[in-house]
Amino acid sequence: RTSRGTVATVDHEVVTEDRLFEIVRALALPILALESGGVDITTFPFPEAGIAVIGGEEVGVTPSLLRLCDASLGRATIMMGGTKGSLNVASATAIMLQRWYTS
User: Fold this and answer.
1) What kind of architecture, by CATH, is found in domain 7-102?
2) What is the pTM of this model?
């Protein structure tokens, strides 16, 4: 998702999970999940190029996608305090991308 001013300039495609598996295999890039229960994002070994899967804040990443990620790079986790264990998807993605870019 992007703002109305840039939606036409960002390449994107909505795909089924099966199609995503095909794309990942074809690209042969490492894949990670931004999900709880993983390596702290501040020490996660981000690759130079790769694929990130970010799930919704209530249901997270599907079990089959988690298995795919766990067999590759694993899970990056934004450590949080307090009682709420999730962030807005856009906020979490922004934090992850900034960390990946500067790693």
Assistant:
1) 3-Layer(aba) Sandwich (3.40)
2) 0.82
